[in-house]
Design goal:
Blueprint (H helix, E strand, L loop, with lengths): L1 H25 L5 H8 L3 H13 L3 E4 L2 E4 L2 H11 L4 H15 L2 E8 L2 E9 L13 E2 L5 H7 L4 H11 L12 H14 L2 E4 L6 E8 L7 E8 L6 H24 L1
Antiparallel strand pairs: 1-2, 3-4, 3-8, 4-5, 6-7, 7-8
GO biological process, one term: negative regulation of DNA-templated transcription
Pfam family, one: IclR_C
GO molecular function: DNA binding; DNA-binding transcription factor activity
């Protein structure tokens, strides 16, 4: 019984630590009182954890406000680089951005959500949302749907059960059957579209990266609807994106 109690305390402590870290990031810095109210924990408990994380150099204290320290950056870069994908993906991403003039992203899936790993900007690029490291729902973005289309059906259903199909705009797919119909179309064409599903007035075209039939992520070009329209949306950008995806797959296969 004592062993179980100790284990539960350790798990609760870990939950508290990560809750503090995530709250500090969401609030863009916070003090003891603010974190106590946010997490519903005693100020003394919050203070003890904050002091430990400052001592370990994971947090920086400015006056009465705590901010995330740059030590997290080292861990994030290590996690990204351990995938060993960017040396191949990034040059192709830059070329795709230059060809289209828009912004290009590389996205991977982790725990049922999309994570932006890399980007490249063309000379007309607009970045309405998204940052490196941001985690996003898969069902409402082109790259996310390209990834979902190449996951096993039971895994997709598990993701839907866990994260839902939240509406971002009036165009977001929120019906499971409709989503699966679109995923089948994406598998057939090799291209996924986002026509105002995540942000009104925004369009995107994506293709999966599947060297040797192994899904590693997706690349996408996005931009304002007034520029990405007609043949540019239905033919030219899809051809560029799918061609770039194929080039990346060949390079990864040849390594």
């Amino acid at each position: 019984m004592a062993s179980d109690n100790n284990r539960n305390r350790r798990v609760k402590t870990a939950d508290t630590v990560f809750g503090i870290i995530e709250s500090i990031q969401a609030l863009d810095g916070a003090g003891v009182t603010e974190l106590s109210e946010e997490l519903g924990l005693a100020k003394s408990t919050i203070h003890d954890h904050l002091s430990t994380m400052v001592e370990k150099e994971y947090l920086v204290k400015n006056g009465q406000t705590y901010q995330l320290g740059l030590k997290f950056l080292n861990h994030g870069i290590h996690a990204r680089d351990s995938l060993d994908l960017l040396p191949t993906v990034q040059p192709n991403l830059k070329q795709m951005a230059n060809e289209t003039g828009e912004i290009a992203w590389f996205l991977v899936e982790e725990y049922g959500r999309g994570v932006y790993l890399s980007k490249a900007k063309g000379d007309r690029a607009v970045q309405p949302y998204g940052k490196i490291g941001n985690r996003v729902d898969l069902h409402s973005i082109a790259a996310g749907k390209a990834i979902l289309a190449h996951l096993p059906e039971d895994e997709v259903r598990t993701i839907i059960e866990k994260h839902g199909l939240e509406s971002q705009t009036s165009e977001t797919i929120t019906d499971t059957d409709q989503l699966f119909e679109e995923l089948e179309s994406i598998r057939q064409s090799g291209v996924a579209f986002n026509d105002g599903e995540s942000l009104a007035g925004h369009r995107a075209v994506a293709s999966p990266i599947c060297p040797n039939d192994r899904l590693i992520g997706a690349i996408v070009v996005s931009g304002p609807k007034n520029r990405i329209q007609g043949d540019m949306f239905t033919e030219k950008i899809p051809e560029i994106v799918s061609g770039t995806a194929n080039a990346i797959e060949l390079e990864l296969t040849a390594r």
